Amino acid sequence: MIYKDTNEILPKILKRSDDYEEKYLSTVLSIIDDVKKNGDSALKIYSKKFDNNPDENLEVTKKEMISAYDNIDEQLKLDLQLAKKNIEEYHKNQLEKSWFIEKEGTILGQKITPLDKVGVYVPGGKASYPSTVLMNVIPAKVAGVKEVIVVTPAKDGKISEIVLAACYIAGVDKIFKIGGAQAIAALSYGTETIPKVDKIVGPGNIYVALAKKLVFGRVDIDMIAGPSEILIIADDSANPEYVAADMLSQAEHDELASSITITDSPNLAKEIEKYLNIHLKSLPKKDIAEKSLKQYGGVIVVKNINEAVELSNSIAPEHLELAVKNPFELLPKIKHAGAIFLGHYTPEAMGDYFAGPNHTLPTGGTARFSSPLGTYDFFKRSSIISYTRDSFLKQRENVYRLAKSEDLDAHALSVKVRG
Predict the structure, then answer these.
(1) What residues bind Zn(2+), as annotated (predicted)?
(2) Spatial separation of the C-alpha atoms in residues 14 and 359, rounded to whole Å
């Protein structure tokens, strides 16, 4: 579908997940309350009900992880290990250090401390996602988190071998065979088997997203992930087949995914549409991709590339590809995007699996104020303050007056008695 009026498509894209929360809210609240009260027994009931998992043992053994690693294809092992190396190297550059400054008898600073326990949710209903394991576990390990726990549904009692192998490669400490809102509840409150964590990260369906939202405050979370999206800014230098393939790579995720190209070339728009139709016919997930494109996809034709940039900034996409002659010249104009892919040979898939930057990204316009997952998500900062007696006496009266101005007499007293 080619659009010249953005009002035909943009409102649908920006509001595509708004109606879903209310529909599932009571179910998720009920599940959380049940797990909170009944622990493992509730988890086992939900595991049988939703995943047809008859296994009473919720934890995956180290032996099972190693066995899965041994069983996967040797080239796939190498691919996962190379991806791990790239992800580690990239995220090491995000590490923060504790720092201190001394000034006139005071020492001020900031202490960086890794979180103790982190839970990673790995979806497992319709497909296997080893990349989710690597992208969520490795930054936590690089940050120095002591214990990383993975939860993932075991359909018919089984977890994909490649997911288990990725857990082994990434250094996961524990894996539990449980998914959905019940897994989020277990990580938030703890059960007889599953320990309570400090933070939960990782994507999931609407039940998982809602559960994360509801437990936030009791534990920290990374973000509320909505349906995924790609936006491509393309000029007449773009290859229409490349652009169409990149749009389809997002559309095959699910029916709510959004794949949009914005171009100043009407001819390119027609060619993109042609290649979308060609490749859609042979796509295994044709039905999903077709629905996604029909509802939330298309090519928008604008007057010039500057207008395309303005439109992109208003959408704040999760993935933004700059398929233009000079992408680095356009980059300074981009204000809001989760990840930015520059040039004709940088498809989103490179970032999803291998390049190194994290693929856990803000969706639904939240790139206006939030960032990709990184090592900075896995440590906390403590302020450091120290005064000598002389430096305290120099500033005591300032603090005394400020405390009195707020009618906090005990605060004022605490500095007065040190005179």
Answers:
(1) 250, 253, 352, 411
(2) 21
312 annotated as a binding-site residue = no
Class of domain 2-17+227-356: alpha beta
Indicate the residue type of 196: K
CA dihedral (33, 36, 38, 42) positive or negative: positive
101, 109 Cβ separation under 8 angstroms? yes
Q: Is there a contact between 150 and 133 (Cβ–Cβ < 8 Å)? A: yes
Query: What fold, for 20-221?
Result: Rossmann fold (3.40.50)
**Regarding beta strands 258-263 and 298-301, do their DSSP bridges make them parallel or antiparallel, or are they unpaired?**
parallel
CA–CA dist 324, 33 (Å, integer): 51
Catalytic residues: 318-319
Nearest to 154 by CA among 56, 252, 226, 76: 56
Please count the other Cβ atoms lying within 10 Å of the Cβ belonging to residue 208. Answer: 24
Residue 228: which of 201, 200, 199, 204 has the closest Cα? 204
Q: What is the largest CA-CA distance in the chain?
A: 82
The residue to which tokens 């693929």 are assigned: 359
Question: What is the predicted pLDDT for the residue at 329?
Answer: 97
**pLDDT confidence of residue 125:** 67
Q: Which residues of the chain register pLDDT less than 50?
A: none
Name the one residue in this structure whose structure tokens are 């973000």: 223
**In the chain, where are the structural domains located?**
2-17+227-356, 20-221
Q: How far apart, in whole angstroms, are the C-alpha atoms of residue 210 and residue 19?
A: 12
Residue 359 known to bind ligand? no
pLDDT by residue (tens digit) across 180-221? Answer: 999 999 999 999 999 999 999 999 988 999 999 999 999 999
